[in-house]
From TrEMBL:
The gene is argC. It is an enzyme of class 1 (oxidoreductase). Transmembrane segments: none annotated. It is found in: Cytoplasm. The active site is at C149. It comes from Sessilibacter corallicola. HAMAP family: ArgC_type1 (MF_00150). SMART domains: Semialdhyde_dh. This is N-acetyl-gamma-glutamyl-phosphate reductase. Its main location: cytoplasm. InterPro entries: AGPR (IPR050085), AGPR_AS (IPR023013), AGPR_dimerisation_dom (IPR058924), AGPR_type-1 (IPR000706), NAD(P)-bd_dom_sf (IPR036291), Semialdehyde_DH_NAD-bd (IPR000534). The keyword Amino-acid biosynthesis applies. Pathway: Amino-acid biosynthesis; L-arginine biosynthesis; N(2)-acetyl-L-ornithine from L-glutamate: step 3/4. Keywords: Amino-acid biosynthesis, Arginine biosynthesis, Cytoplasm, NADP, Oxidoreductase.
Amino acid sequence: MIKVGIVGATGYTGVELLRLLVAHPNVEIAAVTSRSEAGKLVSDYFPNLRGHLDLAFTDPSFDQLAHCDVVFYATPHGVAQSQVAELINRDVRVIDLSADFRIRDVELWEKWYNQPHGSPELVGHAVYGLPERNRDAIANAKLVACPGCYPTASQLALLPLIENGLVDTQNLIVNAASGVSGAGRQGKVANLFAEVADSFKAYGVAGHRHLPEIEQGLNDAQSDNDDAVKLTFVPHLLPMIRGIHATAYATLKDTSVDLQALFESRYENEPFVDVLPAGSCPETRTVKSTNICRLSVVRPQDRDTVVVMSVIDNLTKGASGQAVQNLNIMFGLPETQGLEQVALIP
Ligand SMILES: NC(=O)C1=CN([C@@H]2O[C@H](COP(=O)(O)OP(=O)(O)OC[C@H]3O[C@@H](n4cnc5c(N)ncnc54)[C@H](OP(=O)(O)O)[C@@H]3O)[C@@H](O)[C@H]2O)C=CC1
Ligand SMILES: CC(=O)N[C@@H](CCC(=O)OP(=O)(O)O)C(=O)O
């Protein structure tokens, strides 16, 4: 059994990790940390886990985490970067759900996250945990930086087009909308039910911290000689709990390509990417609580604009499910193990 620890288990991605890992046949949950709930039984705090986990939260302590084979950080950015070096030195592998190690350019990270990076020397050792791009590197990684939720949905939408040099990369657009759990569980007035229900709004339009992450991923996917991509990224807050719908727009350089066939063949062997038949539009409810990204590609009116719609559950493929997918790859397990859930609503 693989002994896992979870730091930050009282948050939304933490409890999603618990939900997935209690059912994982090759995992033993050995340490579950919370500063605020230390000493309390996890199943008293999260009654959905009653009968599935007999463990109490503990304070995050190196001694306890050092006995794990792998530790997930489900913490706000800034936490993992101050703690993981010691674990890695002790041969404990780390899967970080936060943004700490996603961006290779440390100065760029510091600019967007508005703080000095706590362990810049580790950034170059981190593997960006998007299996559909980096499966081989993830398998051998000591430190995996799981992608953000919007970046997962956006990159999976655009990768087939960028990898094949089919679109103008100087004017890419992604309009995306997220459920409120994307903002985390800590209390903020902006996320109160009365603030978000019955309403829909954009935010971060002038610049959201996922912009440099998506651009980095798309730059990696195109040929080295191409100009750096330019993306306009507009996130929105949806009055629902879980789910992201991202719509990507790009101008085709070549309109003769069969885009449906291209997407189907790019993702043919990907267990968690489902390309819908031509003419369909994906719905967030069909991926709720699953690790699936469901895509549709359309060329409206046969003009030169391509529109790709991409839906994921922000807490599953956008965070904890993808983290478990990475765990499976790192430990040589079947990639889908513990992740076979089907959505409740078609
Ligand atoms: N929500 C989402 O959809 C997604 C989130 N992410 C990323 O995953 C990470 C977790 O997000 P989310 O679960 O939403 O966040 P939450 O705010 O819901 O939870 C954060 C958790 O971290 C713990 N924590 C906070 N500060 C510290 C600290 N200094 N040391 C140790 N533990 C700490 C908190 O518990 P306690 O205070 O009890 O210790 C809490 O359990 C974030 O970096 C987020 O950006 C990534 C993709 C999607
Ligand atoms: C709805 C909402 O607020 N979403 C969050 C992003 C989700 C997320 O957690 O992404 P990271 O892992 O990069 O933090 C936001 O816009 O900041």
